[in-house]
Backbone:
C-alpha cells in the first residue's frame, strides 16, 4: 500500500510540474551521472562542468534541488571567480608595447658587466648603438646590485697586471739522471717571460739575485707572486724588499692561485723540453733561452688577441713572399714576408 502511494504521489508531481522543469531536471541528472561515472574516487570537476552549472544557475531557479556533486555555495563561488577574472581581463592596462627581448637582455648584460654604471650611462651606450628606448625603460630592466658597486676581480687584476710578476721553478732530468732546477719569472702584463736560469742547487741568495736581475732597480713592479717553497728564505725576502717588491704568497697546495706562470711552465714542457734530451746545465740554458726568444717574440697567445708578448707586426701581401724562420731546432716556425 505504501509503495503504491509513493508511486501515485510521484505521478501526480510529474503531472503538476511543467514540461520545462522535467527537461531541466533530466538534463542536470544526466550531467551529474556522467561526472560520477568517471574512474576515480573523487571525480574531478572540469572547467566545462563549472561553466555548465554557473550557466544553469542563472536561467533556472530550482537548480539547487537537483545538485548533488557539490554544494550550491560552491557554484556561487565559481560564478564570483569568473566575474573577477572577466573584469580583470577587461580592465588590464593597454599601455605601450613591450620592449624587445633582445634590448632587455642587452640592458641586463650591460648592467652586470658595468657595476659602476647607472641608468643614464647605460642609456647613453644604448643610444650609441642606434636603439631607441627611454631612460625609464633602462632603469626598469637593469640588474640591481645588492652590494655597493664594485669592479670585478678580472678588472682588478687587469688594472694591476703591469705591477705583478710571478716566480716558480720546474725540474728537468738530464741524460745522466741528474735533476736540474729552472727558475721562471713572468710578467703578468703581456705574459712575457722576463728571466730564466738553471742550476742544480738553488739557494735563497741565488734565487733573490735572479729576481733582482729580472726586474732591475728602477721602475720595478710592486708585487711578486710566489708559492711557499722553502727556497724562499729570509735572505730572499731581504733581496726582494731591497728593490721594493711586496711578496704575495699563495695558499698551501694551491697552484691555481699562480695560474699564469704555471701555464707557462706547462707550455715550456709540452712545446720544448718534451722534445729534447738535456745533457747538462749549459745545454739546458741554451734550449730554454731559444724557447724564451720564440715565446716572447713569435708565439701568438689567445689572451693577447693572438699577438706575441713583444707584439709582432702584420706583414701585408704586398710586402713579399712568405718565408719561414726556424725556432727551437725546427720544432716551431715563424712565418713572415720577405721581399724577393
Residues:
Amino acid at each position: 500500500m505504501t509503495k503504491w502511494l509513493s508511486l501515485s504521489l510521484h505521478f501526480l508531481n510529474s503531472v503538476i510540474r511543467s514540461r520545462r522543469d522535467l527537461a531541466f531536471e533530466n538534463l542536470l541528472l544526466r550531467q551529474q551521472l556522467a561526472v560520477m561515472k568517471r574512474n576515480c574516487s573523487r571525480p574531478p570537476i572540469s572547467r566545462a562542468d563549472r561553466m555548465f552549472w554557473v550557466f544553469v544557475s542563472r536561467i533556472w531557479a530550482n537548480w539547487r534541488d537537483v545538485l548533488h556533486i557539490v554544494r550550491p555555495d560552491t557554484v556561487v563561488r565559481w560564478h564570483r571567480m569568473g566575474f573577477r577574472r572577466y573584469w580583470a581581463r577587461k580592465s588590464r592596462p593597454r599601455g605601450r608595447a613591450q620592449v624587445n627581448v633582445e634590448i632587455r637582455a642587452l640592458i641586463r648584460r650591460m648592467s652586470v658587466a658595468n657595476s659602476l654604471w647607472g641608468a643614464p650611462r647605460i642609456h647613453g651606450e644604448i643610444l650609441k648603438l642606434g636603439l631607441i628606448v627611454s631612460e625609464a625603460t633602462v632603469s626598469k630592466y637593469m640588474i640591481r646590485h645588492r652590494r655597493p658597486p664594485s669592479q670585478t676581480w678580472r678588472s682588478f687584476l687587469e688594472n694591476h697586471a703591469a705591477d705583478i710578476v710571478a716566480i716558480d721553478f720546474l725540474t728537468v732530468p738530464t741524460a745522466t739522471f741528474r735533476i736540474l732546477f729552472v727558475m721562471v719569472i713572468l710578467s703578468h702584463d703581456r705574459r712575457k717571460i722576463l728571466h730564466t736560469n738553471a742550476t742544480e742547487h738553488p739557494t735563497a741568495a741565488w734565487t733573490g739575485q735572479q729576481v733582482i736581475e729580472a726586474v732591475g732597480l728602477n721602475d720595478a713592479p710592486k708585487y711578486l707572486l710566489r708559492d711557499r717553497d722553502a727556497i724562499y728564505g729570509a735572505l730572499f725576502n731581504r733581496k726582494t724588499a731591497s728593490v721594493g717588491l711586496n711578496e704575495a704568497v699563495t695558499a698551501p697546495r694551491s697552484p691555481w692561485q699562480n695560474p699564469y706562470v704555471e701555464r707557462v711552465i706547462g707550455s715550456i714542457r709540452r712545446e720544448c723540453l718534451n722534445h729534447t734530451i738535456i745533457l747538462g746545465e749549459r745545454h739546458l740554458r741554451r734550449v730554454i733561452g731559444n724557447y724564451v726568444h720564440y715565446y716572447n717574440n713569435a708565439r701568438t697567445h689567445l689572451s693577447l688577441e693572438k699577438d706575441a708578448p713583444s707584439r709582432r707586426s702584420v706583414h701585408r701581401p704586398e710586402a713579399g713572399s712568405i718565408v719561414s724562420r726556424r725556432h727551437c731546432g725546427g720544432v716551431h716556425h715563424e712565418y713572415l714576408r720577405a721581399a724577393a
In short: The two ends are 130 Å apart (CA to CA).
